[in-house]
Design brief:
The chain is of the alpha/beta class and 393 residues long. It contains 13 helices and 15 strands.
Length: 393
């Protein structure tokens, strides 16, 4: 029997279980499932009956077809686009998962089972939700009418220990000389911005660079959904909070950045800048909180600076654009650009220093991949060169 046929049969048996049509109401649910499969599917071979019983149990108590995917350590991301289309990412490549949901109702039921322990919900009044699962994995769900072809569910798996800096070198994301340079930059307390597109590995690289923060330093991390795992002994982790079911209780990234300034941090690490908190972060970096790290969605170093300017203007404090540009030029020392290649590998494509020009801030490449070969230039700006020289002394 094919996998799809087993899925359909398992879905049918689960519906009968929920309707209370199975015999042996006093027996444990797993035993009732096994007895029903033995009775109704006696023509199937023992291995197939055992697999059918497992799928019925998964749909009844676990997360249905997603359960084996969540237990598979090679799966980095799970993407569901309606009941019949499930995809996974393994080693940077997206491929069909080989599983499916029996119906849209079954998929909605799994989404509700994921969200219920998190105190979140998705319904007609709030048809999309973003949350963090108990194991740290990030989950996003969108249901009709916003999702036209049925509920869409995305689960980004959480790596409990993350990837170390050496792991990134082994994976080809960084070269060993580039890692040595970035390590010296972090030790010199330069402010570093990691940019790239969705899924390019920005947060992974940020976490790896944090290895070079001194063990004696107090670090405050601020994230929309807590993913960073710093290894220093003195780390305070802050996570934003969305509105509750009553629409109240929201705590934004911007509010956490402001609060972090009162917590006597040596360094502030913002998982991703995506709103008006950019202005507060620039203010902090310009006022003595050197050595801070953050990420931003952008395709190049120059675009990253423009995006930071735009996000800072979203703070609605009435600052002139020129003043924001001046703050960017003062606050950011280095921009690290990362990309995801068509084969799924992630690679740092460039490192640029931020230099001051008449218009405010500009970037100058220090490291770049040209035709697959790394090219280097020495820092030109006094800010970065002097910091690196002082740290090396």
């Amino acid at each position: 029997m094919s996998g799809d046929a087993l899925d359909r049969l398992a879905a049918m048996m689960r519906e009968r279980l929920l309707a209370g049509d199975l015999d042996g109401a006093g027996a444990p649910a797993v035993d009732r499932i096994a007895e029903h499969v033995e009775r109704e599917a006696a023509l199937l071979d023992p291995d197939t009956r055992a697999e059918l019983a497992r799928r019925v149990a998964e749909r009844s108590f676990g997360l249905g077809p997603l359960q084996p995917l969540l237990e598979d350590p090679t799966v980095d991301e799970i993407m569901v686009a309606g009941p019949g289309r499930v995809w996974v990412e393994r080693a940077g490549r997206i491929e069909p998962a080989g599983v499916r949901f029996g119906s849209e109702a079954e998929l909605r039921d799994v989404i509700e089972r994921i969200l219920a322990p998190l105190g979140r919900r998705v319904d007609d009044a709030s048809p999309l939700v973003d949350a963090r699962m108990a194991d740290g994995s990030r989950v996003n769900a969108v249901i009709p009418p916003l999702a036209v072809d049925g509920p869409a569910l995305t689960i980004r798996r959480f790596r409990r220990h993350g990837m170390s800096a050496q792991d990134l070198v082994d994976a080809g994301t960084l070269t060993a000389p580039l890692l040595d340079f970035l390590a010296s930059v972090v030790r010199a307390r330069c402010n570093v911005l990691v940019c790239g597109g969705t899924g390019s590995g920005k947060t992974t690289t940020l976490n790896a660079l944090s290895e070079f923060i001194g063990a004696e330093e107090r670090v405050v991390t601020i994230e929309d959904a807590a993913e960073l795992r710093l290894r220093q002994p003195h780390v305070v982790r802050l996570e934003a909070r969305p509105p509750g079911l009553d629409g109240r209780g929201e705590v934004t990234i911007r509010r956490l950045v402001r609060n972090a300034l009162r917590m006597r941090p040596d360094r502030i690490v913002v998982g991703e800048v995506r709103g008006g908190e950019a202005l507060d972060m620039l203010t902090a970096l310009s006022c003595g909180h050197d050595g801070s790290l953050s990420t931003v969605h952008a395709g190049s170093a120059a675009e990253a600076l423009r995006r930071i300017e735009t996000l800072a203007l979203m703070a609605d404090v009435g600052l002139p654009h020129a003043a924001v540009r001046e703050q960017v030029a003062d606050a950011v020392h280095l921009v690290v650009c990362q990309a995801r290649r068509p084969d799924g590998t992630r690679v740092v494509t460039g490192v640029s220093e931020v230099v001051r020009v008449a218009a405010g801030a500009a970037v100058r490449d220090l490291y770049a991949l040209r035709d697959g070969r790394p090219t280097w230039r020495a820092p030109l700006g006094d800010r970065l060169a002097s910091r690196l020289a002082a740290a090396a002394a």
